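Chapter review: from sequence to fold.
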Amino acid sequence: MSDSLEVALRTTTLNQPRARLHGLPPDEIERLQARLPNLAEVRKEAKLALDLLKQPPPTDVQGMDPTGESLGILHPAIAYHFMLPKLYAFAYFCHEEDVPEDLLLLCLWSLQQKIIAIQEGPDRQLRKIIATPQGKVLPGAKTFMEGQTRSKIVTYLLTGCAERAAELKRAAALKDTAPEDSKCIEDWGRYKNSGFDDVATYHALGLKYDINRGKTHIIIKRMIYMPDGGKDVLDRFRIVEAGVFRIPDVVKEIDLLMNYKPGESREVLDELIDEFNHGPGTNGRAFPFFTLFISDDKRIGNYLCIGGVMPKKMRDLKYDPNWRSIMNRKKFTVGPLRLRTGAPDAEHDYTPVSQRRRKQIPDRIWSKTPRIKARARRELRTRR
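The token string follows.
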């Protein structure tokens, strides 16, 4: 559930969400705002959460109460609360409508862990979770917190995470009758937005050369599911083919793959860019890029998504022309992708920086007069 956050964790937001608990009067909700962690700090802690979720649940974490007295080995769900206090507080206190989409699944996970902690954790260890800021445990606090937590989980699933909720529901329905299919759907939900192959995507799209190519080009990746590929979900999916294409060349192909009406993919891509530019976390500094995952496996289907990258990351990145060899975690060289419409591969429809330097071609034409500019352009074409 956590992997879908890695892409959006590249950025931060300046817009602080509102606090909310159901049934509280406005004056009490105002006081809750002070208990809502800063979103930028939550994003930093979310990175730790992603790392923790790749490991077995913690079973050896020692805890202490506010007085310094030992609480012994913490229940794993309570240990997560000690290790990720800002994420846990944000998930619980934040208004459901204000939770950024990139943090939604981690918030869901932390709320689910809170329910487990309330149901299974020793009362002595639960004090840190249910106590007020002054350290008091009010009558009915445990029941109140469980009710609020369950309410938020339902709200998240029914609103901002409708697509993921449908996947979870579908996977749950298949668990008894088709456990292998259920596992595939769960794994795909975790993998598809993991961002594991983002660096390879940067190289493929040539973002090092021109970061705006992410808006004019798209990388399409053909996937297969390998249930016995490994313990980590990243090893159970393999990109077998990939190609970079100009978006105008593949609009019809995307329409077919995504079952859109003719021309609808162009509208969808434009809407994704508009949402990206106005969404939380971009702050006008990140640049978008598109990825389309395709698969013949109906359990996976096709998935169009948008990611973002900061210019500084591209400046610090050393271009790797062998990006196909790093798209999968296990060694496997990805083959070229050929589309039904015959769209040409556009990976190299620009002059790489290394070639520009060898040819001594300037990155920009700095001359100011039209005549000198025209001559420089003619020389540029001749050198190429």
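Two observations follow directly from the output. Residues 1-15, 356-373, 379-384 have pLDDT under 50 and may be disordered. Residues 194-350 form one domain.
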